[in-house]
């Protein structure tokens, strides 16, 4: 699994600890693969969350595993600073966080909690959320979002002063509460002592007979504490994955986010909506990607190179100024600077098979002989 160079330094009290909840079965995925290991843009859901977490410079990262724990640990490996905590029974989010209590015994720094199936939460949002939590000084903060269609998300109920009063899960909400558009994003920052003290009082008296982490809001408020709700900048970031349709929507959002970043970096996309570029791919300025191109793995594209429409490239090194034919399928290949791949042996530069120099209009009009796709 590519974790974008995840590296955590030794423990320091002025840095947070992070808990990533990755124990759920994900029944609605209808799959034998643990939900957090399903992939979007070539990377597991859990990897995106861990990539965001690293920007906090956390002293510790605890990943709570349960269903498919061995597979999750085997896939993730042992990145420095990451610890696994096993939730033997999946009894809800509150129970999942409670499972980390022994491992966090004596921890006094802030604790940030994130779901392992929310790949769209950006590092900047997590950083800003933690900064807001520290500034507000409440024992617990919750990241929220306002949605046009809040669907089945837990609703955020504020008091008249704007502090968070309670979070009501959709199944337990009445119609007036369901009409609220502000929802829980599932990301929390907390003082560990206050959090675990409140978790002791949580009971499974709800529609799912689970220990809800959200119940700690009401428990803290009943004890006279304030709880802050911090609204994120982009409501799309809170989208989690419960089924394959959610997975596809997340992939579309991530694909466009990646392509827009490359557009701003000087790369040309003839159709950014149909072009697929995984986050592990690297592109140099002035390269051109045709519609429907698929670039994955450790593919590298040099400055000014042209990738033809519907080319499929995996772990390919493409030199500056190189040409890749439409529909070419390359894996593990190296194309030298100014070279070409995927063209028939008789196709010369400027022919309709191969793009000619700028302004030539594609060269001559002679129709080339049919040819088979080649792997180089």
Overall description:
By secondary structure, this protein is α/β, with parallel strands linked by helices. The protein has two domains: about 15-240, Spore Coat Polysaccharide Biosynthesis Protein SpsA, Chain A; about 265-340, UDP N-Acetylglucosamine Acyltransferase, domain 1 (3 Solenoid). The chain is built from eight helices and 24 strands. The strands form six sheets. The protein has a seven-stranded mixed sheet. The longest helix is centred in the last third of the chain and has 21 residues, at about 245-265. The chain is elongated, with a radius of gyration of 25 Å. It starts with 16 loop residues before the first strand and ends in a 35-residue tail after the last strand. Residues about 1-10 and about 350-375 have low confidence and may be disordered.
What's the structural blueprint in terms of helices and strands?
Elements: E1 17-22, E2 39-40, E3 43-44, H1 45-54, E4 60-65, H2 69-76, E5 82-86, H3 93-98, E6 111-115, H4 123-136, E7 140-146, E8 155-158, E9 164-168, H5 175-178, E10 182-190, H6 192-199, H7 215-222, E11 227-231, H8 244-264, E12 268-269, E13 276-277, E14 282-283, E15 288-289, E16 294-296, E17 300-301, E18 306-307, E19 312-314, E20 317-318, E21 323-324, E22 329-331, E23 334-335, E24 340-341
Parallel strand pairs: 1-4, 1-6, 4-5, 7-11, 12-15, 13-16, 14-17, 15-18, 16-19, 17-20, 18-21, 19-22, 20-23, 21-24
Antiparallel strand pairs: 2-3, 6-10, 7-10, 8-9
